[in-house]
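Troubleshooting log. The previous structure file for this entry was overwritten by mistake, so regenerating from the original sequence record. Sequence copied from the archived sheet and checked twice against the printout by T.R.
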Amino acid sequence: MAITATMVKELREATGAGILEVKKALEAADGNFDKAADILREKGAARAAKRADRQANEGVIQMYSHPGGRVGVMVEINCETDFVARNEQFQQLAFEIALQIAALSPKYVAREEVDAAELERELDVLRAQAKAEGKPDNIVEKIVEGRIAKFYEEFCLMEQGFIKDDKRKVKDVIAGVISTTGENIVVRRFARYELGEAL
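Regenerated output below.
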């Protein structure tokens, strides 16, 4: 299938990848938009993994206040250089992450941060639920595994579906920006406040 400039432009806008990368992905996917996007995501994730051990000490502290002032978010997002920290794409990512936190109220940045005692308590509850539903013992652990994944998707920022495209996780969006900026990007920490919430 012939790859048109329009196809390249649309995929580039959707993924943020470079023109040559987009064209190669479209050629490899025989013009299929979704397959090409998956190819680019896999490459971005591989690049992100290679850069994960690099120091990220620059960045921004992004603040977001929901209209009406009922929800406020402060998030620290780091990169390797101040050049990237001032980059429009990085700034946009920081804003969208703050918006994500305001909208979906995660408790943790990543699954590795979930408190061990809380995780064990959740696993016990899920096992009890599966047994109460009459599931056989050999199936219970598989059910619990699936349900704990849902727990992570709800409470861990990196595992959440991205609010602007829920087919992608937040970690995939960040991996895409890593692949275009060439730098490691880390969401370090965040705080979310909601008016009237229990202290």
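The CA atoms of residues 51 and 182 lie 8 Å apart. Archived copy saved in two places this time.
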